Amino acid sequence: MDGGTVVAWILILGASLRGVEALFKMSVFLLAFNALAVAPPAVTGGVSITAPFFCFLLFAVRIFLREGPKRFFAAAFSLNLFGLYTLFILYGVVATYLFPIVFGGEIFIYPMQIPTDGISILQPLTRTSSNITQASYMTLSFLMAISVGFLATETDVAKLVRGSIYPLVAIIVITGALDLLNLNEVLAFFRNANYALVADTQIGSIKRIVGATPEASSFGFLAAGCFSILLLLRGVFRIDALWLVSLLLCLAFSCLSASSTAYGMIFTAFIVCAVQQTFSVLFGNRRDARFAVQFFLASSCAAIVLLLVLYTQPFFKEKMFELADQLIFEKSLTSSYEERSRWSKTTLDSFFSSGGLGIGLGSARSSNSLINVLASTGVPGSAFLILFFLKIFLDEAGLRLALSGIGPQLALIPILAGLALSGTTPDLGPFVAVLIGLHFGLIDSVGLRRWRPVAAEGT
Q1: CA geometry: angle at 302 spanning 301 and 303, to 5°?
Q2: For residue 331, what are the contacts with CB-CB under 8 A and spacing of at least 6?
Q3: Which of 70, 94, 193, 390 is the most core-located residue (most Cβ within 10 A)?
Q4: CA dihedral in degrees (75, 76, 80, 85; nearest 10)?
């Protein structure tokens, strides 16, 4: 057991002793160390059990034991709550068990596990350990969503979100700064998972910041995800210097990752915020309208300053155009882009080859998580998930909150866009799970709608 693993255990056990809220905050904090394993891969048969995965699992188990099976399953199977999500997970697990056998040898895919030489080879569909790990990740995301919902109904949601996001932003900045200063020996201490690590890379002459994550796109996704939450969930934060500095630092490190996924998420977050502000002016209160005007003026000033810097400083202008050329114009010509496009096309073809039934979670690799969900769970599973998200996005109480910058469903949009741009697995990840849980829990905590399943037991 190396030093990084020992530190992870100390942090997780310390948080566990302080209670479920501290355990949740530690789980979010550890997202910055998603290449840190809590057990040597040699002990786990090559499967990497990462620190955030294990911490979130412990959090979900603690909530389950505290609430009891009756309440937990009541929330899981209620169609007013997580019922559609539950049906999605159940179908996905059944598909994972059956369809690699039913369609084995008939459908060809690029498997989740990349060979040691780094070259993906088209292979016939068969059951592998990736089916088990991806089904486990999806199930954990599902349990996380319900657990966060229970936690959010009985705590100060604003305080919970602030106490989770600000420490995560801080460690993203610290690890990103260490990478920027080329202190990789410090970051290597926290990268012991059995992953293909892609650190110390460049686009042209521009260094890509990785932090303590496996690759630049992971770091960029993390920083851009925090930016989206800070911007679109700003109603639960105090709009002060800490919020503004955190927002700008997330934006800066998203850019330093030189990740097209992060840039897509940032762009999507700005578009969603602009739409939100437009509706706030038209249908919101004076406070919402005032922030909308301030947001427009601040964005305009920032754009003017950026243009002036690019116009007066040839160095920054050259770097900006070089980055744009590499990410937009040259990217489609690279072998990596061709390979990732091939993954997605083959995975989508496997969906049609299965007759729309799916090929099981973890069977195939893609460069688009939404395509992977469709291929993995087929028409039935995808339909359950789409209906579940429609329920969240069209929730009347949630939409009212969203106009005030509180609704978590708006922060989901940039994160789902990021998954569509570069996600390689069907798992939608912890950001999505946490925001889903906050959506249901927040509605209850502000008194807009009650959803405690236990109420049905006594009435």
Answers
A1: 90
A2: 260, 337
A3: 193
A4: 150
SS (H, E, C) 87-108: HHHHHHHHHHHHHHHHCCCCCE
Contacts (Cβ under 8 Å, ≥6 apart) of 229: 161, 165, 411, 431, 435
List the structure tokens of 316.
Answer: 């920054």
Q: Structure tokens of 203?
A: 């686009």
In angstroms, the CA 450 to CA 442 distance is 10
Instruction: Kindly give the confidence (pLDDT) of every residue in the chain, 459 residues in length, as a single tens digit, with 9 standing for 90 and above.
Output: 678 888 889 999 999 999 999 999 999 999 999 888 888 766 666 677 888 999 999 999 999 999 899 989 998 998 888 999 999 999 999 999 998 998 888 888 888 776 555 566 788 888 888 888 889 989 999 999 999 999 988 888 889 999 999 999 999 999 999 988 888 788 888 887 766 555 556 665 567 888 888 888 889 999 999 999 999 988 888 888 899 899 999 998 998 888 888 989 999 998 998 888 887 777 765 666 666 666 667 766 766 776 666 666 665 556 555 555 555 555 555 556 677 788 888 988 999 999 999 999 988 888 888 899 999 999 999 999 999 999 998 887 777 777 777 778 899 999 999 998 887 888 888 999 999 999 888 776 554 444 444 443 333
CB 243 within 8 A of CB 169: no
Q: Is 203 helix (H, G, I), strand (E, B) or coil?
A: strand
For the record, the structure tokens of 44 come out as 């786990």
Q: Is the dihedral of CA 192, 195, 196, 197 positive or negative?
A: negative
Cα–Cα distance list, 92 to 229, 349, 426 (Å): 28, 18, 10
Backbone angles phi, psi at 124, to 5 degrees: -70, 145
